[in-house]
Amino acid sequence: MGRYENKFKTFLDEKRKIVDKKLLQALKNRKPGSLYEPGYYIIEGGGKRLRPLLLLLAVKAAGGKLNTAYNAAAAVELLHNFTLVHDDIMDNADKRRNILTIHKKYDTSTAILTGDSLLSVAYEYLLKDCNGNAKKIMGAFTKSLVEVCEGQSLDKEFELREAVTIGEYIMMIRKKTASMMEMCCTTGALIGGGDEQIVKGLANFGKNIGIAFQIQDDLLDITGNENDVGKFIGGDLVEGKKTFLFLKAMEISKGTDKDKLLEVIKNKGIKPGEIQGYKDLYQKLNVLEAAENEIKHYTNLALKSIKKLKNEKYREFFALLADSLIKRRK
Amino acid sequence: MGRYENKFKTFLDEKRKIVDKKLLQALKNRKPGSLYEPGYYIIEGGGKRLRPLLLLLAVKAAGGKLNTAYNAAAAVELLHNFTLVHDDIMDNADKRRNILTIHKKYDTSTAILTGDSLLSVAYEYLLKDCNGNAKKIMGAFTKSLVEVCEGQSLDKEFELREAVTIGEYIMMIRKKTASMMEMCCTTGALIGGGDEQIVKGLANFGKNIGIAFQIQDDLLDITGNENDVGKFIGGDLVEGKKTFLFLKAMEISKGTDKDKLLEVIKNKGIKPGEIQGYKDLYQKLNVLEAAENEIKHYTNLALKSIKKLKNEKYREFFALLADSLIKRRK
Predict the structure, then answer these.
(1) Is the predicted ipTM greater than 0.85, yes or no?
(2) Which of A149, B39, B40, B146 has the fewest beta carbons closer than 10 A?
(3) CB-CB neighbours of A10 under 10 Å
């Protein structure tokens, strides 16, 4: 893999800059300021830009040209930020990427409307790169929007339900997180002019890497560093979220350990002071290791689905991306 | 006009039923229930279905077939309901169409997500009727979504601003209300296969009738009956909204009358007990008549823009629709 590492890094750095510029242009000085300034603020706050990069990699892997896809790349990041802004209201989150969330910096009405407008501009930008295949591309984008809403609703529903299986959890994150990554790959492959096999292979890569990504996110809520992650560590436990870690712990624990976990469900979360105790319990039950194995499992599925990709360079780029996601600290 | 009245009434009644059925089908028994049941509840709550009917009339006026457009008709009503659900949170409204708003019946998180999902299903349904012209139709729909967000933001901004001109107000309602009606006509005309002149003429009808519609809405907030309108009468004054009536009153009042209006701005609204006093002031200043004249002005512009429509029957249907909107009590 070594020979592509520097090229991959350069690709990410260069394309991230172009995407950032496009994103800021999409919102800067747009009127009315009362609508677009909060959106600009959240986009300017940064982020990994993972979804646009996935889309652009898929364009290249399918044999297309990047300059036909930068608007679509901006669109998927705008869609992602729409979900963040609305989710942060629902989760009552104070911070995101180390800065105040929109509903905290402004108010809930502003945050609702900012989310809506980010979504509207997402569709506007996606349309700019729909040439000849608008129905397919808009269909993939819309399917992922539908599933993101369904996934978020299941996530909230699971917080209130007593019993959730790991199977149900995987189905939920497939919709809430993986669906959008799958769509990024599908959209990139379609814009790039890929045939059915390429589109399907890349879509499967996106879906499986998305599931791995979300379990990694659950893990970082426990093992991460607040400054790296950009938000409060242990927040999932405080919110009583049924993460992979929590459900795995429920599955294998007994006696007083299980009672301690049932307390989280009963009280719909824990106090910040109790986080360390639950971290220790997770360690004892080896659920962090179980999560790492699950992440590896889905990452391997992702890699398997691009094995037939003829373009060696971009096949390796995808493999390097998968590797970097496993190792990420934020 | 007389010869078409019964036919027009039959058209509305028949098509409204088909649209209602399509709308309920779009959300009924869809999983997860936690997401789609609140959406079903708000759609089942009824409504005039004005936007789908506008779209279907435009399909026929352009020479198209209705059975190619019922999904799109459902889509514009879903888009409309998305805006209502989110606006009701922002306006802190308790009731809509005589039933509890979603954020009152459930909670704010549910209402945010229900709005988002209604929008996602709107795009899903619109796509079903995009055949060969997806980019144009999706473009018109998305432009109207962008403008609805901009209009809503301006509306909220005007509540906080001291001075708003009637010109600014018209620009705001053009975006907040008229843009979607314009889009319904554009989309219908495109699906119906209309040429550029027909699309443009119908779009102008939608835009102007939309402006007239919103001023009529402002008027009904004062002259309406709570049971007819389905929400609290005088709510715009209580909320301190800068409606056409309020801005016209500001424009022509002097002395103590003006002071009384300035109080509304200063206090960002009035108490429910003060509504009658402001109703009397509006009467005294003749602003209700001024609003009626403005409604007639935009209705005439709407009628003028469809004069060249060759299909006499549907030209008369549009005229009857315009007439019914002027006379509406809800």
Answers:
(1) yes
(2) B40
(3) 10
